[in-house]
Amino acid sequence: FHSGEREEKCIIEDVPSDTLVIGNYKVQRWDIHKQDFLESAPGLGMFVTVTTPSAEVLLSKLYGPQGTFSFTSYLSGEHVICLQSNSTRFVAFAGSKLRIHLDIRVGEHFLDESVVQAKDKVNEVNFRLEHLIEEINHISKEQNYEREREEKFRKTSEETNSNILWWAIVQTLILISIGIWQIKSLRDFFISKKLV
């Protein structure tokens, strides 16, 4: 995505609890002379801030023009990941465009290549088995989190349906009572004018 030099951009990531989140990014600065983005942005860093669903700051750190950040969520919900350059130029002069490449991986565990290339096949199989167990645990956490969200949504839907039903009943009672009142007042009017 593109961003201004002093502009803060935020991404919302829905993350289950106890899940590892890894983010890789790279910043490129616009070159006016070449009319293209430079391969890197020397001297420019990124300030990364991660906020939990309860508005608590989980990560707040300054990184270079290219880097990796990671955090483990302890609370399930929408985590806000914000990126802003550390440019010291005044806002009026900071008109340079930035291109930010961002790759966020949720709950991913990487295989250690040194273990994979080990000659001892038992260790390799053991390591791969541990990796699969971690993946199964992660999938189980994801499913539990989705069940919780579905249950909240179902409760909200049932409450809304109940409110709609009561509102319809109240409207019907009001209409019936207004109709009865109009008939009675019209009848009384006709009797007072001696038309009936």
UniProtKB/TrEMBL annotation:
SMART domains on file: EMP24_GP25L (SM01190)
Location, primary (coarse class): endoplasmic reticulum
Gene Ontology cellular-component annotations: endoplasmic reticulum membrane
InterPro entries tied to this protein: Emp24-like (IPR015720), GOLD_dom (IPR009038)
Protein name: Transmembrane emp24 domain-containing protein 11
Source lineage: Eukaryota, Metazoa, Chordata, Craniata, Vertebrata
TM helices/strands, residue ranges: 164-183
Keywords: Endoplasmic reticulum, Membrane, Signal, Transmembrane, Transmembrane helix
This protein's record includes keyword Transmembrane: yes
Family: Belongs to the EMP24/GP25L family.
Annotated organism of origin: Fulmarus glacialis
Keyword Membrane part of the UniProt annotation: yes
